[in-house]
Amino acid sequence: MRERNATVARTANGALRAVNAVAADDASSVEPFDDVNETSSPDHANHAHGLNGVSGMNGMSGARASADADEAHEPLSPDDPLAPLPFNPYKGNRGLTRAWHAMKNSLAGFRVAIREESAFRQELTLAAILIPCGVLVPVDPVSRVLLLGSVLLVLIVELLNSSVEAAIDRISLERHELSRRAKDLGSAAVMVALGMCLMTWGLIVGPLVVRWVKAWL
Protein backbone atom coordinates (compact mmCIF):
# COMPACT_ATOMS: atom_id res chain seq x y z
CA MET A 1 0.00 0.00 0.00
CA ARG A 2 2.87 2.39 0.83
CA GLU A 3 4.59 1.58 -2.42
CA ARG A 4 1.39 2.32 -4.34
CA ASN A 5 0.93 5.69 -2.64
CA ALA A 6 4.57 6.59 -3.31
CA THR A 7 4.16 5.73 -6.97
CA VAL A 8 1.07 7.91 -7.28
CA ALA A 9 2.87 10.78 -5.56
CA ARG A 10 5.87 10.54 -7.87
CA THR A 11 3.56 10.46 -10.90
CA ALA A 12 1.71 13.58 -9.72
CA ASN A 13 4.97 15.42 -9.01
CA GLY A 14 6.22 14.56 -12.50
CA ALA A 15 3.05 15.88 -14.14
CA LEU A 16 3.27 19.13 -12.16
CA ARG A 17 6.91 19.61 -13.20
CA ALA A 18 5.95 19.03 -16.87
CA VAL A 19 3.14 21.62 -16.68
CA ASN A 20 5.45 24.15 -15.05
CA ALA A 21 8.08 23.57 -17.75
CA VAL A 22 5.54 24.20 -20.55
CA ALA A 23 4.33 27.40 -18.87
CA ALA A 24 7.91 28.60 -18.50
CA ASP A 25 8.59 28.01 -22.19
CA ASP A 26 5.46 29.99 -23.18
CA ALA A 27 6.40 32.85 -20.90
CA SER A 28 9.91 33.01 -22.31
CA SER A 29 8.57 33.05 -25.87
CA VAL A 30 6.51 36.25 -25.26
CA GLU A 31 8.37 39.38 -26.24
CA PRO A 32 8.25 42.48 -24.01
CA PHE A 33 6.24 44.59 -26.47
CA ASP A 34 3.69 41.93 -27.45
CA ASP A 35 0.05 42.87 -26.87
CA VAL A 36 -1.68 40.45 -24.60
CA ASN A 37 -5.02 41.12 -26.33
CA GLU A 38 -3.68 39.65 -29.55
CA THR A 39 -4.20 36.18 -28.15
CA SER A 40 -7.93 36.51 -28.82
CA SER A 41 -8.86 35.24 -32.29
CA PRO A 42 -10.28 37.61 -34.96
CA ASP A 43 -13.25 35.35 -35.44
CA HIS A 44 -14.14 35.68 -31.80
CA ALA A 45 -13.83 39.49 -31.99
CA ASN A 46 -15.98 39.66 -35.12
CA HIS A 47 -18.56 37.43 -33.54
CA ALA A 48 -18.70 39.62 -30.45
CA HIS A 49 -19.00 42.74 -32.60
CA GLY A 50 -21.78 41.13 -34.61
CA LEU A 51 -23.68 40.26 -31.46
CA ASN A 52 -23.32 43.82 -30.21
CA GLY A 53 -24.56 45.16 -33.60
CA VAL A 54 -27.55 42.81 -33.63
CA SER A 55 -28.44 43.75 -30.09
CA GLY A 56 -28.14 47.44 -30.99
CA MET A 57 -30.34 47.00 -34.06
CA ASN A 58 -32.89 45.11 -32.00
CA GLY A 59 -32.88 47.92 -29.47
CA MET A 60 -33.35 50.54 -32.19
CA SER A 61 -36.16 48.59 -33.84
CA GLY A 62 -37.85 48.15 -30.48
CA ALA A 63 -37.64 51.87 -29.77
CA ARG A 64 -38.96 52.68 -33.24
CA ALA A 65 -41.86 50.25 -32.80
CA SER A 66 -42.75 51.81 -29.46
CA ALA A 67 -42.62 55.29 -31.02
CA ASP A 68 -44.89 54.17 -33.88
CA ALA A 69 -47.30 52.68 -31.37
CA ASP A 70 -47.38 55.95 -29.44
CA GLU A 71 -48.04 57.89 -32.66
CA ALA A 72 -50.79 55.44 -33.62
CA HIS A 73 -52.57 55.98 -30.29
CA GLU A 74 -52.04 59.75 -30.36
CA PRO A 75 -55.36 61.56 -31.05
CA LEU A 76 -55.59 63.43 -34.35
CA SER A 77 -56.03 67.18 -34.36
CA PRO A 78 -59.12 68.70 -36.05
CA ASP A 79 -56.89 70.14 -38.81
CA ASP A 80 -55.47 66.72 -39.70
CA PRO A 81 -56.94 65.49 -43.05
CA LEU A 82 -57.13 61.95 -41.60
CA ALA A 83 -59.15 63.06 -38.60
CA PRO A 84 -62.75 61.77 -38.58
CA LEU A 85 -65.35 64.29 -39.63
CA PRO A 86 -67.83 65.54 -37.02
CA PHE A 87 -71.20 63.87 -36.94
CA ASN A 88 -73.61 65.33 -39.49
CA PRO A 89 -77.29 64.48 -38.85
CA TYR A 90 -78.10 65.24 -42.50
CA LYS A 91 -75.75 62.48 -43.70
CA GLY A 92 -77.39 59.63 -41.82
CA ASN A 93 -79.64 58.38 -44.62
CA ARG A 94 -78.70 55.26 -46.58
CA GLY A 95 -80.01 53.38 -49.60
CA LEU A 96 -83.28 54.46 -51.20
CA THR A 97 -83.93 57.00 -48.47
CA ARG A 98 -80.71 58.81 -49.30
CA ALA A 99 -81.56 58.80 -53.03
CA TRP A 100 -85.04 60.18 -52.29
CA HIS A 101 -83.69 63.02 -50.14
CA ALA A 102 -80.98 63.78 -52.72
CA MET A 103 -83.59 64.08 -55.45
CA LYS A 104 -85.69 66.43 -53.32
CA ASN A 105 -82.65 68.60 -52.59
CA SER A 106 -81.73 68.71 -56.27
CA LEU A 107 -85.23 69.82 -57.26
CA ALA A 108 -85.11 72.47 -54.52
CA GLY A 109 -81.80 73.69 -55.99
CA PHE A 110 -83.37 73.97 -59.45
CA ARG A 111 -86.29 75.96 -58.03
CA VAL A 112 -83.95 78.35 -56.20
CA ALA A 113 -81.78 78.84 -59.30
CA ILE A 114 -84.80 79.56 -61.50
CA ARG A 115 -86.32 81.93 -58.96
CA GLU A 116 -83.17 83.78 -57.85
CA GLU A 117 -80.65 83.61 -60.72
CA SER A 118 -81.52 85.58 -63.86
CA ALA A 119 -78.44 84.28 -65.71
CA PHE A 120 -79.58 80.70 -65.13
CA ARG A 121 -83.04 81.56 -66.44
CA GLN A 122 -81.56 82.99 -69.63
CA GLU A 123 -79.32 79.97 -70.16
CA LEU A 124 -82.21 77.63 -69.41
CA THR A 125 -84.28 79.38 -72.11
CA LEU A 126 -81.38 78.97 -74.56
CA ALA A 127 -81.16 75.28 -73.61
CA ALA A 128 -84.89 74.84 -74.21
CA ILE A 129 -84.30 75.98 -77.80
CA LEU A 130 -80.99 74.21 -78.51
CA ILE A 131 -81.74 70.80 -76.99
CA PRO A 132 -84.68 70.03 -79.35
CA CYS A 133 -82.56 71.28 -82.27
CA GLY A 134 -79.72 69.00 -81.20
CA VAL A 135 -82.10 66.05 -81.08
CA LEU A 136 -83.61 66.76 -84.54
CA VAL A 137 -80.51 67.80 -86.49
CA PRO A 138 -79.29 65.04 -88.87
CA VAL A 139 -75.81 64.25 -87.45
CA ASP A 140 -74.04 61.12 -86.23
CA PRO A 141 -74.52 60.01 -82.60
CA VAL A 142 -71.15 61.33 -81.41
CA SER A 143 -71.87 64.79 -82.80
CA ARG A 144 -75.32 64.72 -81.25
CA VAL A 145 -73.82 63.94 -77.84
CA LEU A 146 -71.37 66.81 -78.24
CA LEU A 147 -74.17 69.24 -79.12
CA LEU A 148 -76.34 68.26 -76.18
CA GLY A 149 -73.41 67.97 -73.78
CA SER A 150 -72.10 71.44 -74.54
CA VAL A 151 -75.52 72.92 -73.69
CA LEU A 152 -75.82 70.94 -70.47
CA LEU A 153 -72.27 71.93 -69.53
CA VAL A 154 -73.29 75.60 -69.55
CA LEU A 155 -76.10 74.86 -67.10
CA ILE A 156 -73.81 72.82 -64.85
CA VAL A 157 -71.15 75.52 -64.66
CA GLU A 158 -73.79 78.20 -63.99
CA LEU A 159 -75.19 76.17 -61.09
CA LEU A 160 -71.71 75.77 -59.60
CA ASN A 161 -71.05 79.48 -60.02
CA SER A 162 -74.28 80.30 -58.25
CA SER A 163 -73.40 77.95 -55.37
CA VAL A 164 -69.99 79.63 -54.96
CA GLU A 165 -71.61 83.07 -54.87
CA ALA A 166 -74.14 81.89 -52.28
CA ALA A 167 -71.38 80.47 -50.07
CA ILE A 168 -69.39 83.72 -50.25
CA ASP A 169 -72.45 85.81 -49.41
CA ARG A 170 -73.14 83.47 -46.47
CA ILE A 171 -69.66 84.18 -45.07
CA SER A 172 -69.83 87.96 -45.47
CA LEU A 173 -71.58 90.57 -47.60
CA GLU A 174 -68.77 93.12 -47.27
CA ARG A 175 -66.58 93.95 -50.23
CA HIS A 176 -63.36 91.96 -50.16
CA GLU A 177 -60.68 91.28 -52.71
CA LEU A 178 -60.83 87.48 -52.27
CA SER A 179 -64.63 87.46 -52.51
CA ARG A 180 -64.49 89.47 -55.72
CA ARG A 181 -61.81 87.17 -57.11
CA ALA A 182 -63.84 84.03 -56.38
CA LYS A 183 -66.93 85.44 -58.07
CA ASP A 184 -64.91 86.63 -61.07
CA LEU A 185 -63.38 83.17 -61.46
CA GLY A 186 -66.84 81.61 -61.43
CA SER A 187 -68.02 84.04 -64.11
CA ALA A 188 -64.95 83.22 -66.19
CA ALA A 189 -65.81 79.52 -65.96
CA VAL A 190 -69.30 80.25 -67.25
CA MET A 191 -67.87 82.28 -70.13
CA VAL A 192 -65.55 79.40 -71.10
CA ALA A 193 -68.49 76.98 -71.07
CA LEU A 194 -70.51 79.33 -73.29
CA GLY A 195 -67.58 79.67 -75.70
CA MET A 196 -67.23 75.89 -75.86
CA CYS A 197 -70.94 75.53 -76.60
CA LEU A 198 -70.77 78.15 -79.36
CA MET A 199 -67.69 76.51 -80.89
CA THR A 200 -69.27 73.04 -80.85
CA TRP A 201 -72.48 74.18 -82.49
CA GLY A 202 -70.60 76.29 -85.02
CA LEU A 203 -68.33 73.43 -86.13
CA ILE A 204 -71.05 70.76 -86.28
CA VAL A 205 -74.22 72.59 -87.26
CA GLY A 206 -72.60 75.45 -89.18
CA PRO A 207 -71.75 73.42 -92.34
CA LEU A 208 -75.27 71.94 -92.34
CA VAL A 209 -76.83 75.39 -92.16
CA VAL A 210 -74.62 76.65 -95.03
CA ARG A 211 -75.62 73.63 -97.13
CA TRP A 212 -79.33 74.19 -96.46
CA VAL A 213 -79.05 77.89 -97.35
CA LYS A 214 -77.30 77.07 -100.63
CA ALA A 215 -79.95 74.48 -101.44
CA TRP A 216 -82.76 76.99 -100.88
CA LEU A 217 -81.05 79.65 -102.99
UniProtKB/TrEMBL annotation:
Stored InterPro entries: DAGK, DAGK_prok, DAGK_sf
Chief place where the protein resides: membrane
Active-site feature positions: 158
Annotated residues for binding of substrate: 98, 119-123, 144, 158, 187
Residue numbers binding ATP: 98, 117, 165, 174-176, 183-184
Name of the protein described by the UniProt record: Diacylglycerol kinase
Family: Belongs to the bacterial diacylglycerol kinase family.
Keyword Transferase recorded: yes
Cellular localisation: Cell inner membrane
Gene3D superfamilies linked: 1.10.287.3610
Bound cofactor: record note: Mn(2+), Zn(2+), Cd(2+) and Co(2+) support activity to lesser extents.
Highest taxon in the source lineage: Bacteria
Positions of region (Disordered): 26-88
Transmembrane segments: 145-164, 185-210
Residues the entry annotates as binding a divalent metal cation: 117, 165
UniProt GO MF annotations: ATP binding; ATP-dependent diacylglycerol kinase activity; metal ion binding
Record bears the keyword Cell inner membrane: yes
Pfam families per record: DAGK_prokar
Species assigned in the record: Paraburkholderia polaris
Assigned keywords, A-Z: ATP-binding, Cell inner membrane, Cell membrane, Kinase, Lipid biosynthesis, Lipid metabolism, Magnesium, Membrane, Metal-binding, Nucleotide-binding, Phospholipid biosynthesis, Phospholipid metabolism, Transferase, Transmembrane, Transmembrane helix
Protein function: Catalyzes the ATP-dependent phosphorylation of sn-l,2-diacylglycerol (DAG) to phosphatidic acid. Involved in the recycling of diacylglycerol produced as a by-product during membrane-derived oligosaccharide (MDO) biosynthesis.
An annotated GO BP: phosphatidic acid biosynthetic process
EC number of the protein: 2.7.1.107
Recorded topology in the membrane: Multi-pass membrane protein
